[in-house]
Design goal:
single chain, 6% strand, disordered C terminus, 38 helices
Length: 1026
């Protein structure tokens, strides 16, 4: 808001409607041109060859028919380390096996996350495929034991049961003798396996296609999001997530709701059953993992390389009988949440349905057109059944030739023929620089057909997978299940499911090619994990079959203009639909132009014009202004759970993002619950000596001005004082910022308050708020980084020093020392003193002195009370300042007239509490413009609505540091008025000019004179100078 106001005042002093529109449109076109081209230099700067990209679209046009062939063509043309642009995202393709080993195993920490999908919804967002960093590690470490050999043995009976249904269904086709789509049969089979193993329910999806489970699962695979505008999402990816939130998809919500409710219902049923009656399926294994201590370390995540059972040394020890008894008495910590259980069940649909059914279908196709191989499989299977009644996890390992057949089918038709990792930090691998923010693609499909490693790669030769052949081949040229710690966690289950189905099938049936069998098989190469890209291909094929450069440009430009028009108007009906009156907004900008001179006055005007519940548009954001005290009580206290969060700042950096002001929901509750005791009366008593020490410096500095007799800006002095208090109390260091303005602490703090982000384009950020966060990330602010590093390092250095000291030597500090709060959060809370405690306290001290200077009779009462106070006490502290009743009334009245936070927004940017308006409301404050401290006598406060006076907010999210601020202010004033008189002079502006950007402060300082009082505290003459 401040930046926008500055921009308007400096660059648009006489702005009219047409010139404003033209100027903004030219700025917009310039930014659009820059946006269209700027990302397409990343790969070239890294020395990575790639096809020439189109503006906005990158190389997406190459993939109209799918990815399998074009990715291979790019590698053949540009080398084994090459790249392309997937829309605006740079993708580095690595087809070098040695480099892949480095990426997927040795340097795994730099490539541990899969490609980000920014608008995934629950339950998909909680599944293992979507989780990132430590969250993924925790869930993967718990899930990996569920896929051990022992657990797979428990799954085999469930799969055998579903396989019996498959055999019965295939028998119908065998008796008919007609050709049929066996891939569809295997789709039903894998759907039934998923229902049984992951969702704890039994279905026969071939015979019962209307089963609720089947219908809702099919919704998932038929789901397509806004196909006609998917190219626009590729051009402007930051629009996708907001539009997904704004425009609900009822089918998706219904599907998600069905599976979530289904699983939670089964969880409830299982918890009510005795343990021995619970069905042993994957869902039950995850339920057991909620309280089990069984987990594995990162080196055991790779299911390709470690032994059947995790090493006990890398697991947490199983509890003894006595431990179990104690554990049952204590509350059990849930290592995996219910939402995460739902997410992992859901991942079976996401990653296990098409992959397994495709592999089964391709294997049968290959054996049908290679009958000699089918004959070998059948001989092995028949011999198997002479030794075993039915297949299970252990005995299927005996079928070596079947294993080779499945491996060769996965080589020729890898279900995941390409997979990607995010490059989380700049790094160099095998001499190649890889840039942070790009994606790294592993082209498994290309590697599986690489003639350097696979002679005659198009041929079906199961013998490629004999033990000798595998030992002589590079392990990273065959990647059907990925590799390294992030390989497919369900690999063993998939192999078991596939092999058990094939064993039963080839024991009972022959698969025969017929005239309807397509040779070679026609393939589609989208991916179940790249549904957006598939939608893009469909859009191009349907709507742009012969699209040339100019027609494509025109079509996309028309789509763009239509969406721009829609974007400029659609948010401005929200308030009207709710019956909330508001000023008429402008497209893109809302009511921002009302606030050119600040917020204090215009908000009061909106309330007077439109009522106590009204609104306005802050750019595109609807803001509801509530000036009704009863409704405010409901919002801030009674219905607090609906309004727990302050206005969201989408791009704060550390340490600010860890401060209490920025935290949200449960994290805020946790940190606030830990910090609140730090502001208790007992703790503030410990702070008083630190504040008294800083006050000594203030008194010495004011004494210089008293001796000179000249007018000076007392607000600036109080700024130095509050800076010194913050340095001492929050950062554990002592400075005198008035005498030492070059002290590193002072210099870096001033960077914070002088910081302004992109002032010239502030209006563009209001019109297009989604551009702000990406630009902040793309264009680093070196001064901000330098400031953050200074405060981070300062506090962490002090923390280290304190930890090395004996407890009795530690200085008292506000930084909490408990392990319940992290070191980053400690830094954040210290930093919040700068954010919320500097201007607010200095402004209140300045305004209080200003009011007492122009009301000498009130100042005299304060001094009389202070003089009498010092007859009883040597110095002020937390307890004795409570005796100063009149001083308390003076400070309260100053906070009423000049509330430092004159408005605040407790939920997003949607509901505003106009404290400034309430403090001047004549309905509750007769003659509101006058300074009358007696408004705050106990009797007057008791007769007034408590929610018309909100200098520190109210409810659970009020200012946590309120007591400290009051203590700091009163201790300074007590000492000041004991020694000095504050005198209005010709330089004192009456009325004072205010600025009302983020806080309410003096626009041009507060100039007064100061004189020393004599030892008796004699009253002075405070008539302004002539």
């Amino acid at each position: 808001m401040e930046a926008a106001a500055d921009f308007l005042r400096v660059f648009l002093p006489e702005v009219g409607g047409s010139s404003l529109t033209l100027g903004l449109f030219l700025i917009f076109l310039g930014l659009l041109y820059w946006y269209a081209y700027y990302p397409y230099s990343v790969l070239s700067r890294c020395g990575i060859k790639h096809p020439k990209p189109l503006p906005f679209l990158g190389n997406i046009m190459m993939f109209r028919e799918g990815f399998f062939g074009p990715v291979a063509d790019i590698i053949r043309t540009h080398g084994r380390v090459c790249g392309y642009y997937l829309g605006r995202r740079p993708v580095v393709v690595v087809a070098d096996p040695d480099m892949l080993r480095q990426v997927m195993v040795r340097d795994f920490s730099s490539f541990q996350n899969r490609m980000t999908i920014r608008f995934a919804t629950k339950p998909m967002a909680d599944c293992l495929l979507m989780l990132r960093n430590e969250h993924w590690k925790r869930v993967r470490s718990i899930l990996t034991p569920s896929f051990s050999a022992a657990k797979m043995k428990e799954m085999a009976p469930l799969i055998n049961t579903v396989t019996d249904v498959l055999m019965n269904n295939l028998n119908v086709y065998a008796e008919s003798g007609e050709a049929f789509d066996i891939h569809k049969c295997f789709g039903c089979f894998t759907m039934d396996v998923i229902a049984s193993v992951a969702f704890g329910t039994q279905v026969d999806s071939q015979k019962n296609p209307d089963d609720p489970f089947v219908r809702h699962a099919q919704m998932f695979f038929s789901f397509s999001f806004f196909r006609p505008i998917v190219l626009f999402f590729i051009m402007f990816p930051f629009l996708a997530a907001p539009l997904v939130k704004i425009i609900p998809n009822k089918r998706l919500a219904r599907m998600n709701g069905f599976f979530v409710n289904c699983i939670k219902k089964i969880i409830t049923q299982r918890e009510e059953q005795p343990p021995e009656q619970r069905r042993r399926d994957f869902l039950q294994l995850m339920l057991d993992a909620r309280t089990s201590k069984e987990s594995v370390s990162l080196e055991h995540f790779d299911t390709l390389n470690h032994t059947d059972e995790p090493n006990p040394r890398n697991q947490q020890a199983q509890p003894s009988a006595s431990d179990q008894e104690a554990h049952s008495r204590a509350p059990q910590k849930k290592m995996i949440s219910e939402d995460e259980i739902v997410g992992q069940a859901f991942v079976f649909l996401l990653a296990g349905y098409e992959t397994s059914s495709n592999t089964l279908g391709f294997t049968c196709y290959l054996l049908a057109i290679n009958p000699e191989c089918q004959h070998k499989v059948q001989e092995e299977v028949d011999e198997f059944f002479t030794r075993h009644e039915s297949p299970d996890y252990t005995n299927v390992q005996e079928l070596k030739y079947l294993d080779m057949v499945v491996c060769e089918a996965l080589r020729l038709y890898p279900p995941g023929f390409r997979f990607a990792r995010d490059i989380d930090q700049d790094c160099v691998v095998n001499g190649q620089f890889l840039p942070k923010g790009a994606s790294l693609e592993i082209p498994a499909g290309f590697l599986h057909y690489d003639p350097e490693y696979w002679p005659e790669p198009q041929k079906f030769i199961p013998e490629r997978f004999t033990p000798e052949a595998k030992a002589n081949r590079h392990p990273f040229v065959y990647l059907p299940f990925g590799a390294g710690p992030r390989n497919c966690v369900g690999m063993r289950l998939a192999q078991l499911e596939i092999k058990m189905a094939l064993i039963h099938l080839f024991h009972k049936f022959n698969i025969v090619a017929c005239t309807e069998t397509k040779v070679p098989l026609e393939l589609k190469s989208s991916s179940t994990l790249q549904s957006v890209m598939e939608a893009a291909a469909d859009f191009l094929n349907v709507f742009l079959p012969e699209a040339g450069g100019s027609s494509l440009t025109l079509g996309l430009f028309l789509i763009f203009l239509g969406l721009l028009y829609w974007y400029s108007y659609y948010p401005y009906s929200v308030l009207s639909r709710c019956g909330i009156k508001h000023p008429k907004p402008l497209p893109f900008f809302g009511n921002i132009f009302m606030f050119r001179e600040g917020l204090f006055g215009p908000i009061a005007d909106i309330i007077r014009t439109h009522g106590r519940v009204c609104g306005y548009y802050l750019g595109r954001n609807p803001v509801v202004v509530v000036a009704d005290p009863d409704m405010i009580r409901q919002v801030l206290v009674r219905d607090f759970s609906s309004f727990p969060n302050r206005m969201t700042v989408h791009f704060p950096t550390k340490p600010m993002c860890d401060s209490l002001l920025m935290l949200r929901n449960e994290r805020w509750k946790r940190v606030r619950s830990i910090l609140t005791p730090s502001f208790s009366a007992a703790r503030l008593k410990e702070m008083a000596p630190l504040i008294n020490t800083v006050t000594d410096v203030l008194i010495n500095n004011l004494n210089v001005y008293a001796e000179s007799g000249e007018a000076f800006d007392i607000h600036k002095c109080f700024g130095c004082f509050t800076m010194d208090v913050i340095a001492s109390v929050a950062f554990g260091t002592q400075v005198d910022s008035q005498k030492n303005p070059d002290d590193p602490f002072v210099r870096h703090a001033q960077i914070f308050f002088s910081f302004s982000l992109f002032k010239p384009i502030a209006l563009i950020f209001l019109a297009f708020p989604f551009l702000a966060a990406p630009l902040v990330r793309l264009i680093p602010n070196k001064r901000l980084i330098k400031m953050n590093d200074f405060f981070n390092n300062s506090i962490k250095k002090i923390i280290t020093q304190r930890e090395e000291q004996p407890p009795e030597q530690e200085a008292h500090s506000r930084a909490p020392q408990k392990k319940m709060i992290t070191e980053d959060e400690i830094v954040g809370q210290a930093f919040v003193f700068l954010l919320a405690g500097y201007e607010t306290s200095s402004n209140t001290l300045g305004f209080t002195c200003y009011l007492l200077a122009i009301h000498p009779e009130c100042q005299h009462k304060v001094q009389e009370e202070v003089d009498e106070f010092f007859t009883r006490h040597e110095s002020p502290d937390y307890t004795n300042v409570q005796e100063l009743k009149y001083l308390d009334m003076v400070v309260c009245e100053a906070l009423r007239l000049y509330p430092p936070g004159f408005s605040f927004l407790p939920k997003g940017a949607s509901l505003e509490i106009p404290a400034g308006f309430l403090h001047y409301d004549p309905e509750h404050w007769p003659e509101p413009e006058r300074f009358i401290p007696e408004r705050f006598t106990p009797e007057a406060k008791a007769n007034r609505h408590p929610f018309v006076y909100l200098p520190f907010g109210a409810g659970p999210r009020n200012c946590v540091g309120m007591r400290l601020a009051q203590l700091e202010i009163k201790m300074a004033l007590v000492r000041l008025f004991h020694k000095f008189n504050i005198v209005a002079c010709t330089e004192t502006k009456v009325p004072i000019e205010l600025k009302s950007s983020s806080t309410l402060g003096p626009k041009n300082g507060i100039f007064v004179k100061i004189t020393r009082r004599n030892s008796g505290g004699v009253r002075f003459n405070s008539t302004p100078d002539d």
